[in-house]
Amino acid sequence: AALEGLAALAQEKGRSAEPYLVEAFPKILDASNDKSKNVKDAAVAASKAIMGMVSQYSVDLLMPALLAGLAVKAKPPQKEATLQIITALAAKAPRAIGYELVNMVAAVADLTCDIKKEVKAAAVECMTTICNCTGNKDLEPFLPAVVEAAQSITNTHSCVEKLAGCIFVQNVEAPALACTLPVLSRGLNDKSEEVKRTCCLIVDNMCKLVEDPAEVLPLMPRLEPLVKNACEKISDPEARGMADKAYKTLQKAAGESVLQRVSAEDALKHLKDLLGDKSYDETE
Hints:
Number of strands: 0
């Protein structure tokens, strides 16, 4: 009854109830683990109702709960529910989800191989939907191959070859880079030096069109070690040369910038400074 009430609150009150429902969301999602099918269904319905009314600016606040629902320790019903919720949210706020891909795409990709058929089916649908949040028209024709590669390591080689043929014209941003990360991670860890070389070619092609270092910095902790390792361990001179070139292009794209997260307090202070006398003082 409580979950049904929260779903009704989301539908009736909309954005005015958003702060309270976003705060309650982790507990609502946890209820999808309940043994009772009725409770589970009510939790999923309430979650979807919340996704239907939240603004794109709330996505970042929802991410900890969503990532917990995708984690290895999460039970299958919660994984399935979380995947369905992310799919719904991606359809509503594709740009916001696009910039969260760096944090979630690996977990979703892993679940496309889950032994539970319900989780696997939900993950394939979710992976397809979130990959369409990249905003990169050049990459769009290759996204089905990316989803297929996530489902089976045997599809990785084929996907790598296809991505190597992608001609990038549009500026490459973080969502596009993040979308290819599961494929590149597998490819750069592959035994085949030719596959590693091709992955380095993809990195080089994409990073050449990164204009803002902020677009590549979130991926550096995952991508840089993989490319660097290829530089150090590939024995074939030509392939190693490609790896060295990709590594230099990657470093150039990142520049000397350092990724910093702005706290809510600092953001509020900055807004008040910009607004000056027009700012609202909550103490008044």
